[in-house]
Write a structure and sequence with these properties.
single chain; about 220 residues; Aspartate Aminotransferase, domain 1; globular
């Protein structure tokens, strides 16, 4: 018995291939990276789709491969199906969702809707604001104090004070290296960089309504 040699297993429990003994085993980090890549592609597709929405929405646009009268008939059937609830509307994907996804691992991360965009809170502080509207509301706003502007502008030359909210810095989607700069800003938020984030005023609790006096008969 003492002469038997134990060889390290290659598969199964404790092996290099994991418990499943499969060559295609991947780590959780790789799965997350693949998911973020898919979100990035979906975001780009959503932005490109917005540019063609106006053309697609023109009345009288014919369906490819169909006669004009057939196309109008099909469109009428589609409208009827939507009204009856037979065809539901899918929830749109925010084009910058792939940017804030790395923050989801932070237990203090909270995402809230704000003025048509998405506000990212980390450690209870408003840190980044993602907006996909029209300029100057198409990009990432860095919620910071004016005292940190010089330091952040030196590190991120793509940033500039926002045209309407100059106390915050703005990374427009049209900026050079937008994706790389946005990912670096998110990385700063993940590291809880003290230059990012502002304290938001807490909502005051509403006072309970004053008790109304009973409307009983008055004493003579």
């Amino acid at each position: 018995m003492g002469g038997l040699k134990h060889h390290k297993t290659e598969g199964g429990q404790g092996g290099r291939r994991g418990h499943s003994n499969m060559d295609h085993w991947v780590t959780t980090a790789e799965i997350k990276d693949a998911t973020r890549g898919r979100r990035r592609r979906e975001g780009k597709a959503a932005i490109a789709h917005e540019q063609t929405d106006d053309d697609d929405a023109r009345p009288g646009r014919a369906v490819a491969g169909a006669a004009p009268e057939d196309a109008f008939a099909e469109l009428g059937q589609l409208d009827t199906a939507v009204e009856r609830g037979q065809i539901g509307r899918t929830k749109p994907v925010h084009p910058y969702q792939w940017l804030w996804e790395p923050l989801e691992d932070d237990p203090t991360f909270v995402l809230r809707p704000m003025f048509g965009g998405k506000a990212a809170y980390v450690m209870g502080r408003l840190t980044l604001y993602f907006t996909a509207g029209k300029e100057p509301w198409r990009g990432v706003l860095v919620c910071t104090e004016r005292a940190h502007h010089a330091s952040l502008l030196a590190e991120f030359p793509e940033l500039a004070p926002h045209a309407i909210l100059p106390k915050w810095l703005y990374l427009p989607e049209a900026a050079n290296h937008f994706e790389a700069a946005a990912e670096r800003l998110v990385a700063l938020a993940r590291r809880h960089d003290p230059r990012l984030g502002i304290e938001t005023p807490k909502k005051k609790k509403r006072r309970s309504g004053t008790s109304r006096r009973s409307a009983g008969p008055k004493s003579p």
